[in-house]
């Protein structure tokens, strides 16, 4: 009935405008009554004679001269997708009518005087006609933290500007952050950016563009990631200054981290995301709803280890293999190398220790890397050529040695049958652009991680050809290593080191020391973080070349650079229509959060503009966990204990019991167990001061602890409790 009632009300509005040549006046009871009469007469003419909803007609009359920008964005996104369907013939067109109503916003405003909605002669008159002046002022005075200035982030800033968020004279501020630079591919949906903005920071550029929409908006922009490493910038104090946090990210782990900070600091959070024509919004309000971390998406389906390593059957497999090679060679191994030499500062010390029989974790692989370290551009090119032979020739020969083409399984069927494809070695051809591209991109990356300088002349075909012509490529020698064929097997965490490997490590390290190739500079590498959006860094060049060479080896259809970048960079398909719709819905929920609306007013949304479908659901009510004896807590609860300088662990436990009626049996700080009675020596800790146990920094005022309680019945697990914030000294208030 609800859609039909809205339909009747909209028809009544059209008739009113036709009859009087104007829309209903704001707060005019006479106009509202007239519209109601028109609606009643229209209802009589319709087939099912739908019941007229007087409240819908009244609110439509009151707000008809208003304009709610976020609602226009949401409807505009849907309408734009319908235009694309008509032009392209792709996806299912909308049948009949689609109505999106925001009665949840206006209904609680019923008791406001009509003066609240009257015009004041400023740019917010149309907004004021919908939500009243008091709510407009709250939006102006709002402190909001927007994380991400991509497609949704740009649309959100547009909505903020049109709503006047952060424009208050004395209060209000929009804080934004995004570490990324603008790429050409961003321009088709991130509408605050233009071609001349390419390679400029998203956050700074978005802030500047937003001020063109509303010059009165106060905005601070940063280029930091929001993660544990930036907790000094985005501290608890920073979060408590924010009235609401809005995330516009596609990184799930970042969203989970931000959600945990919002829960810890009792801040509302509005999360959203899109994938192609799909989108979602989620509202998280302290003490009313569950949090983002209260539910978990199913884990992504991983490609089996044996498929990646030996038996790829699709281009996605070869791209992931190349991506893994990049991560291993240019990020993971250099990071482990640096970490090892930070632990053991000199090669002489390491040599002495392993000679004395001491086992140093990772030393074999580190010494191997040190002994083979390229020290010139020529050696980087030589290393790239050797890797080509290993990856795309020797690997195929080894597999065919282990499993000849006529190999049969126990049931008599051929081993090499679909989906398994037999590999064939790739013979290196300098004039093949794919082969040459791999050598150049790999050599550049090796030069970067090993801190080897190179010039434009070094990258010339003449120089590369001269170096490669002189390379002595190792001959293939078959190995008896077992090839993993079990699809359920996972990649081993550690590869065992033989005694012969250890002897070789000692010999290689001695050789490096004697030849002065284990000096301080030699014990450092420069790890590379994969960055898909910088075309000049060669990351996608390497992955494209490596993936397509492996695809050629297995007779798999290759992928172009764009497809490789999309898969390797896990780029989520995006379209401006879904982005506009989602950001509009987020801004509508923002109005409710600012207005302090009750729990049943908030709505989460899932939409798919291709079908099209738009589903609104009430937010999940926060779950209460019972401890015992009527003592319970939710994710939003945090107990607080104030101590003093000589406060002991026993004092802390007693304080929790006295204040909250239950005695903790275990106290944990992060991953550090402060007090577990069954652990040796922990009973003695009861007499130690909290200062000595926690060891806080000089500026640290408090520490967040986790406590648990003894179960009611022996043998059961300990009962969880809420986080306990312990202040080292009593605060003034």
Automatic annotation (TrEMBL):
EC identifiers of the protein: 6.2.1.45
Residue span(s) of domain Ubiquitin-activating enzyme E1 C-terminal: 602-724
Catalytic activity: ATP + ubiquitin + [E1 ubiquitin-activating enzyme]-L-cysteine = AMP + diphosphate + S-ubiquitinyl-[E1 ubiquitin-activating enzyme]-L-cysteine
Top-level taxon of origin: Eukaryota
Coiled coil: none
UniProt pathway: Protein modification; protein ubiquitination
Residue intervals passing through the bilayer: none
UniProt keyword annotations, A-Z: ATP-binding, Ligase, Nucleotide-binding, Ubl conjugation pathway
Gene3D superfamilies reported in the protein's UniProt record: NAD(P)-binding Rossmann-like Domain, Ubiquitin-activating enzyme E1, inactive adenylation domain, subdomain 2, Ubiquitin-activating enzyme E1, SCCH domain, Ubiquitin-activating enzyme E1, UFD domain
One function term, GO molecular function aspect: ubiquitin activating enzyme activity
Record keyword Cell division present: no
SUPFAM superfamilies linked to this entry: Activating enzymes of the ubiquitin-like proteins
Any one Gene Ontology BP term: DNA damage response
Any Gene Ontology CC annotation: nucleus
Family listed: Belongs to the ubiquitin-activating E1 family.
Stored PANTHER family: UBIQUITIN-ACTIVATING ENZYME E1 (PTHR10953), UBIQUITIN-LIKE MODIFIER-ACTIVATING ENZYME 6 (PTHR10953:SF186)
Protein name, UniProt field: E1 ubiquitin-activating enzyme
Gene name as annotated: Uba6
């Amino acid at each position: 009935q609800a859609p039909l009632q809205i339909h009747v009300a909209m028809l009544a509005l059209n008739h009113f405008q036709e009859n009087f040549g104007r829309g209903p006046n704001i707060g005019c009871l006479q106009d509202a009554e007239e519209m109601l009469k028109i609606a009643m007469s229209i209802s009589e003419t319709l087939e099912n004679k739908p019941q007229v909803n007087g409240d819908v007609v009244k609110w439509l009359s009151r707000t008809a001269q208003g304009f709610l920008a976020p609602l226009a964005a949401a409807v505009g996104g849907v309408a734009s997708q319908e235009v694309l369907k008509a032009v392209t013939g792709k996806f299912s067109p909308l049948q009949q009518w689609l109505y999106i109503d925001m009665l949840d916003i206006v209904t609680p405003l019923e008791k406001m005087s009509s003066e609240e909605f009257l015009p004041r002669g400023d740019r917010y008159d149309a907004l004021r006609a919908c939500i009243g002046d008091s709510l407009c002022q709250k939006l102006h005075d709002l402190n909001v933290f927007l994380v991400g200035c991509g497609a949704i982030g740009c649309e959100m800033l547009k909505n903020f500007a049109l709503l006047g968020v952060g424009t208050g004279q004395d209060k209000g501020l929009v804080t934004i952050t995004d570490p990324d630079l603008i790429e050409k591919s961003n321009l088709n949906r991130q509408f605050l950016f233009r071609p001349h903005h390419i390679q400029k920071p998203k956050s700074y550029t978005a802030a500047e563009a937003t001020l063109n929409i509303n010059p009165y908006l106060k905005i601070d922009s940063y280029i930091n990631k929001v993660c544990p490493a930036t907790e000094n910038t985005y501290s608890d104090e920073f979060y408590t200054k924010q009235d609401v946090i809005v995330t516009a990210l596609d990184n799930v782990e970042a969203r989970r981290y931000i959600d945990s900070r919002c829960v810890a600091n009792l801040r509302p959070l509005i999360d959203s995301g899109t994938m192609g024509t799909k989108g979602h919004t989620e509202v998280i309000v302290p003490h009313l709803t569950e949090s983002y971390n209260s539910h978990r998406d199913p884990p992504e389906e991983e490609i089996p280890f044996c498929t990646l390593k030996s038996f790829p059957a699709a281009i996605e497999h070869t791209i992931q293999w190349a991506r893994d090679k990049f991560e291993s060679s240019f990020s993971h191994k250099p990071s482990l190398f640096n970490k090892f030499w930070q632990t053991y500062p000199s090669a002489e010390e390491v040599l002495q220790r392993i000679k004395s029989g001491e086992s140093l974790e990772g030393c074999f692989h580190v010494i191997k890397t040190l002994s083979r370290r390229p020290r010139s551009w020529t050696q980087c090119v030589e290393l790239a050529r050797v890797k080509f032979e290993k990856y795309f020739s020797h690997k195929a020969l080894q597999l065919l040695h282990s499993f000849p083409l006529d190999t049969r399984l126990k049931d008599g069927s051929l081993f090499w049958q679909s989906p398994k494809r037999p590999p064939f070695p790739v013979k290196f051809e300098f004039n093949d652009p794919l082969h040459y591209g791999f050598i150049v991109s790999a050599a550049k990356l090796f030069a970067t991680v090993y801190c080897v300088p190179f010039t434009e002349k070094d990258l010339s075909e003449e120089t590369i050809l001269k170096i490669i012509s002189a390379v002595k490529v190792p001959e293939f020698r078959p190995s008896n290593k077992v090839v993993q064929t079990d699809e359920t097997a996972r990649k081993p965490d550690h590869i065992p080191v033989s005694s012969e490997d250890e002897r070789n490590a000692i010999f290689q390290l001695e050789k490096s020391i004697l030849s002065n190739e284990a000096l301080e500079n030699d014990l450092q590498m420069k790890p590379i973080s994969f960055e898909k959006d910088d075309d000049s860094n060669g990351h996608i060049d390497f992955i494209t070349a490596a993936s397509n060479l492996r695809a050629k080896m297995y007779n798999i259809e290759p992928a172009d650079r764009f497809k490789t970048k999309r898969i390797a960079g896990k780029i989520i398909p995006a379209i401006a229509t879904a982005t506009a719709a989602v950001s509009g819905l987020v801004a509508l929920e923002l109005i409710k959060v600012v207005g302090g609306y009750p729990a049943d007013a908030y709505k989460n949304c899932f939409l798919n503009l291709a079908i099209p479908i738009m589903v609104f659901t009430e937010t999940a009510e926060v779950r209460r966990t019972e401890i015992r004896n009527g003592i319970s807590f939710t994710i939003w609860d945090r107990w607080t204990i104030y101590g003093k300088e000589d406060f002991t662990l026993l004092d802390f436990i007693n304080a929790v019991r006295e204040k909250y009626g239950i005695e903790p049996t275990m106290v944990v700080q992060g991953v550090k167990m402060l007090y577990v009675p069954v652990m040796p020596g922990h009973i003695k800790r009861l007499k130690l001061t909290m200062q000595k146990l926690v060891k806080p920094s000089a500026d640290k005022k408090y520490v967040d602890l986790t406590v648990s309680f003894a179960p009611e019945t022996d043998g059961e697990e300990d009962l969880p409790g809420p986080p306990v914030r312990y202040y080292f000294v009593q605060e003034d208030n």
